[in-house]
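Re: weekly structure request thread

Next one in the queue (178 aa):
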Amino acid sequence: MSDELDQTRVVAALSQATVEVFSTMLGMEVAAQESYRQGGKPEPTNGVVTLIGLAGKWVGTGSICCSAEVARKISGQLLMSEFANVDQEVLDALGEVTNMIIGNFKNAIEDLAGPLGLSIPVVIYGHNFTASSLHAAQWTVVPFQCPDGNMEIKICLSLQPEPSQNRRQAYPNAQVAV
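Done, posted below.
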């Protein structure tokens, strides 16, 4: 098994999951832009960032990053309401949209990556902050053009070492009593 998933399939699954959720659940059209890989230390950002964990043979994080305006628009479409500010309802709605998109992505790549579980989404809103994942060596980023701005859907997955390998790496001189 390769240490990296087929990026063409990852990008296609992210794009399809996002377009489907936006069209069916939000009644919005979004257009995927050219994907890219992002590594290194993340730059400070403003707006809303959601994070949701994935676990199985592959582990990592899925994320949505967008401005406050885009977050309010997405939440308004989901909840059929208007929001003047980013409040708890907006944050909850963005977490739910993240769960739907990354959940659909997860289902689309399980034939390639094996069964995966999802965590509960975490949603962060602020100005000049940085959010990262400990497993994030390389993110696959798919930018989208949305009404009222842009957003990025990101995924980072890495192969989880076998449990026996973890123990040997962590305790190379340990002896096991039988």
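The chain has a mean pLDDT of 87. Helices lie at 7-25, 68-79, 88-113, 163-170.
Next request, please.
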